[in-house]
Amino acid sequence: MDSFELNKILGAVLGTCLILLSVNIAAGSLFAPHKPEKPGYNIEVQEHPTEQAGKPAEPEVPFETVLASADPKRGETTAKRCAACHTFVKGGPNLIGPNLYGVVNRDKASLPGFNYTAAMKSQTGKWTFDQLNIYLKKPAAMVPGTAMAAFPGLPRDSERADVIAYLATLADNPVPLPKAAAAPAAPAPTAQSGGGAPPPAKPQ
């Protein structure tokens, strides 16, 4: 076999390889799968409005109403969580926090012998029911820099009301709890509203 015939054979092999490579590239471009931007299946879920969507929000109950039905015994049980920092008996010592006997309607930061933080000393007014409610909900929100910043607060209205009702009993003359506001009376029916018969006609 001379060199001319060998060159023809090598050329044929090379040409065949080039043809196969071209076919492979063309097939890959035609039949390449489409890759999604995010893996997984796109499942469409039909949204249904919830039953609550059309209902108006329930009116918030005034704290005075919650406080009027508070239970001091439950509040005493809840207040045991605070026993590591506070005492509750008359003449009791101050701990990390001040003694809480007589705290209701006491001036803020006014208990003798206790070293209040600067943040608490900046507070004015008395520890009224409303002020205690706000403070016990989240102390750090009402008094930034208070020593009670680590205490998360009592989120439930009823729980705060029970504790405040218990604190109100800790006094020589306990502070009475506010009475719940009476519900507004319903308007009397009128003839126009269909609530009663029209007045009798006067004789001519």
Give a topology summary:
Elements: H1 3-31, H2 63-68, H3 72-79, H4 118-121, H5 129-137, H6 139-142, H7 157-169
Helix pairs in contact: 3-7, 5-7
Keywords summarizing the entry:
7 helices, 0% strand, mainly alpha, 204 residues, single chain
How would you explain this protein's 3D organization?
By secondary structure, this protein is mainly alpha-helical. The protein has a domain of 107 residues: Cytochrome c-like domain (Cytochrome Bc1 Complex, Chain D, domain 2), CATH 1.10.760.10. It has 7 helices and no strands. Helix 3 packs across helix 7. The protein is rod-shaped, with a radius of gyration of 40 Å. The mean pLDDT is 80.
Please write the CATH class name of one domain. Answer: Mainly Alpha
Instruction: Assign the CATH superfamily of one domain.
Output: Cytochrome c-like domain
Helicity level: 25-40%
Distance between the termini: 146 Å
Q: Would you tell me the overall average pLDDT?
A: 80
Shape estimate? rod-shaped
- Please, how many helices? 7
The H/E string reads HHHHHHH
Give the biggest sheet: none
User: What gyration radius follows from the Cα positions, in whole Å?
Assistant: 40 Å
Low-confidence stretches: none
Strand content: under 5%
**DSSP E strands, number:** 0
Short description:
With 204 residues, the chain is mainly alpha-helical. The chain has helices at 3-31, 63-68, 72-79, 118-121, 129-137, 139-142, 157-169.
